[in-house]
Design goal:
It is built from nine helices and eight strands. Strands 5-4-1-6-7-8 form a six-stranded parallel sheet, with helices on both faces. Strands 2-3 form a two-stranded antiparallel sheet. The protein starts with 6 loop residues before the first strand and ends in a 5-residue tail after the last helix. Helix 1 packs across helix 3 and helix 3 packs across helix 4. It is an alpha/beta fold.
């Protein structure tokens, strides 16, 4: 018997959306204004999933204990909020995947560690807010991923059992959160995976090197490849 599928949940940065270009532009503009050398885009891409604090450390070589850190972090976040969707877009072939899900009545949602003030604005900018069945941000829960609370909340909002859903993410904590919630997981190896990490080591049910492979695994789950 083919397992039912009622929802597909995505991490945001590095899984559903390619947000790295906007982060890179903001960080490098800050560096340029201080006559500091730019950071390579590949380095920014591999750091985005670790958050704004990690980007400040990457660009300026300072840690949270440094006196300059708070003001640099505040500036980065302020500048990023003003430029959220300049180059941010769905990953290649993601629009087709979302359309595929919607055509079959399968809900899709987002479970992210990105604060709601940024997440919801980006979804509005890209015309995705009304299509997204649930968007759970850390502001709504007590425990961030890899704790399963946010995934369980998304399933509750959608009205589906975790066994009838899939979680797709590009970080180890995403897969751990999905496993902790008791659902099938797909590791998005095409996302913001660090050079010292390997998606095949996270314990996901499937590893996808592209959005097309995510689509393939979903069709497989639906029994469309039999």
């Amino acid at each position: 018997m083919t397992p039912s599928l009622k929802a597909v949940l995505f991490d945001l940065d590095g899984t559903l959306l390619d947000t790295a270009p906007d982060f890179a532009n903001v960080l490098n503009d800050m560096l340029f204004s201080r006559d500091k050398p730019p950071v390579a885009f590949t380095d920014v891409r591999q750091t985005v999933s670790h958050g704004a604090r990690a980007l400040v450390e990457l660009g300026f070589g300072v840690s949270e204990g440094d006196e300059a850190f708070p003001s640099l972090l505040e500036e980065l976040l302020t500048q990023y909020q003003a430029r959220l969707s300049e180059q941010t877009a769905l990953f290649e072939n993601m629009a087709e995947l979302l359309a595929f899900l919607e055509q079959r009545g399968i809900a899709w949602g987002i479970v992210t560690n990105k604060p709601a003030v940024y997440t919801r604005a980006i979804l509005e900018d890209l015309g995705l807010a009304q299509r997204c069945a649930s968007a759970v941000c850390p502001d709504q829960v007590q425990h961030r991923k890899p704790h399963p609370e946010s995934i369980l909340l998304a399933c509750s909002e959608i009205g589906c059992d975790v066994m009838d859903a899939i979680y797709v993410g590009d970080h180890r904590r995403d897969i751990e959160a999905g496993i902790n919630a008791g659902m099938q997981t797909i590791a998005a190896a095409y996302g913001y995976v660090g050079s010292d990490d390997c998606a095949t080591d996270w314990g996901a049910d499937r590893v996808a090197d592209s959005v097309l492979e995510v689509h393939f695994y979903i069709r497989e789950r639906l029994g469309m490849l039999l």
